[in-house]
Design goal:
mainly alpha
Length: 63
């Protein structure tokens, strides 16, 4: 559980900055249709990456 929470915090902060730069106020860096894709991938990373890291830690430290 601790691994999930720590990785969630780290991934959320990193994804926040990437999404803000690419899909936020500076969205002129990307074509219009791609900003929605970046936003979706950012949210997906926030949900999926911490779960994968927690699973990896559980398998290494588990019985």
């Amino acid at each position: 559980m601790a691994t999930y929470l720590v990785s969630l915090a780290l991934v959320a902060v990193a994804a926040f900055f990437v999404v803000i730069v690419l899909a936020g106020p500076h969205s002129d860096l990307l074509p219009g249709w791609l900003s929605a894709v970046v936003l979706a991938l950012g949210w997906l990373a926030v949900f999926v990456l911490p779960a994968l890291l927690a699973r990896l830690a559980w398998r290494r430290l588990g019985p």
